[in-house]
Design brief:
The protein contains 14 helices and 14 strands. It has 464 residues and is α/β, with parallel strands linked by helices. It has a single domain, classed as Glycosidases (TIM Barrel), CATH 3.20.20.80. It is an enzyme of class 3 (hydrolase).
């Protein structure tokens, strides 16, 4: 039996505005939270001063070079590109009454360029950035005012791009707010759980309002959520480890539960009660939450383990998440454990739980690429990683999981989120720039470029 990908399966890649666009003060754009974190999206925030340098200020200059990059994506055969809209290009301070025309016009040009090559946009409304003005003035997502501002922003872009964008996402890796409050909800890193969960509640309400607006405005549009797929295994079969693993998986599945089912699950009510957390939920909030998403999107990079044994509880540091390493798995250059089968497990778990279509919108390998004397980049390690994961996607489809598509993370080298560095590369396309901002920004094709081109061209039949 030959396992295959379904007709209409979307193939492509995923980027984020704050990691590729640059032009951070061009076209009337306001300062975002990402602009205040030049040493990494998960780093400490700093006020900007004239003459400050941040690696993301230029990034890979996608703002000016996107026609070249879209053409390269088309050469690979992309049928979809996930990107985000920078909220501060549309509402520079976040609370303006009318959107910024220059920002809207930029995304018009971007989506028109994609349409030339029949590449569908998959657009995230908020990808690890928000207007800093909303934090200074109102306290970020800690304030209900931000819900109204986000709804205004969502309605503005739905209205403007309703004929060009049919696939939308609300908040990127929404569960990351638990680990990076400033990045996720605009709160100080030292905020307590009461403040963080109240801000998360406001964000979930805003997500519900965006879903309602999308369904009202975008004909034939679909809107999903976006989870960081932080799948955890028990380190042992001790019941205590199994129970603790279930509890920790629920901490991120909770976001999907609310966005799919439209209400808070009972286990979270106990979680709040046990910690004396009191969430202010209005009757209108409850109605807003009932506007549920059309599909589940998620990122998948690694899995981890959970144990209640303190002697065994030596945690690895993987990006912003601390997880006990699995002794049966290898790791990347950055200590992220490589677990292709975990993707199949996660897909089955999500589909069993929600019975909604899935979209894998981030998956990839960050590595240090070497440019050979002849200019070639032989990234066989990336090819192996992606091949092995896509084989597991195909297996999950055969299991009966409904999958809309796959967009690998960083099809072109970009600024990494966690450390704001170029040396951690994900792309099929190499960009000549280093961690200090030096380089020509010239693009070149890696070996994986031609591999992915063959995968898409064969509709996955070339996978091994």
């Amino acid at each position: 039996m030959t396992l295959r990908f379904p007709d209409g399966f979307l193939w492509g890649g995923a980027v984020a505005a704050n990691q590729v666009e640059g032009a951070y003060q061009t076209g009337g754009k306001g300062l975002s939270t990402s602009d205040l974190q030049p040493k990494g999206i998960f780093g400490d925030r700093v006020e900007r001063h004239a003459g400050d340098f941040g690696i993301k200020d230029t990034a890979i200059d996608f703002y000016h070079r996107f026609p070249e990059d879209i053409k390269l994506f088309a050469e690979m055969g992309f049928t979809v590109l996930r990107t985000s809209i920078a909220w501060t290009r549309i509402f520079p301070q976040g609370d303006e009454a009318e959107p910024n025309e220059e920002g809207l016009a930029f995304y018009d040009r971007l989506f028109d360029e994609m349409a030339k090559y029949n590449i569908q946009p998959l657009v995230t409304l908020s990808h690890y950035e928000m207007p800093y003005g909303l934090i200074k003035k109102y306290g970020g997502w800690g304030s209900r005012t931000t819900i109204d501002c986000f709804e205004r922003y969502a309605r503005a872009v739905f209205t403007r791009f309703q004929h060009k964008v049919k696939l939308w996402l609300t908040f990127n890796e929404i569960n990351m707010s638990l680990h990076a409050p400033f990045t996720g909800v605009g709160l100080p890193e030292e905020s307590d759980q009461q403040a963080i969960y109240q801000a998360i509640h406001h964000q979930l309400v805003a997500s519900g309002r965006a879903v309602k607006a999308c369904h009202e405005i975008v004909k034939d549009g679909k809107i999903g959520n976006m989870l960081l797929g932080a799948l955890l295994y028990p380190l042992s079969c001790r019941p205590a480890d199994v129970m603790e693993t279930m509890q920790q998986n629920r901490e991120w599945l909770f976001f999907g539960d609310v966005q799919v089912r439209g209400y808070y699950p009972a286990y979270m009510k106990r979680f709040f009660a046990d910690r004396q957390i009191q969430i202010n939920i209005t009757d209108q909030d409850k109605r807003d939450l009932q506007n549920t998403i059309d599909y589940i999107s998620f990122s998948y990079y690694m899995t981890g383990c959970v144990t209640t044994n303190e002697e065994e509880n030596q945690k690895a540091r993987g990006n912003i998440l601390s997880m006990v390493p699995n002794p049966h798995l290898a790791s990347s250059d950055w200590g992220w454990q490589i677990d292709p089968e975990g993707l199949r497990i996660l897909m089955n778990l999500l589909y069993d739980r929600y019975q909604k279509p899935l979209f894998i919108v981030e998956n990839g390998l960050g590595a240090k690429d070497k440019v050979e004397a002849d200019g070639s980049i032989n990234d066989d390690y990336r090819i192996q990683y992606l091949n092995d994961h896509l084989v597991q996607v195909r297996e999950a489809i055969e299991d009966g999981v409904e999958v809309m598509g796959y967009t690998c993370w960083g099809p072109i080298d970009l600024v990494s989120a966690s450390k704001a560095e170029f040396s951690k590369r994900y792309g099929f396309i190499y960009v000549d720039r280093d961690d200090n901002g030096n380089g020509t920004l010239v693009r070149s094709r890696k070996k994986s470029f031609f591999w992915y081109q063959e995968v898409i061209g064969s509709h996955g039949a070339s996978l091994k």
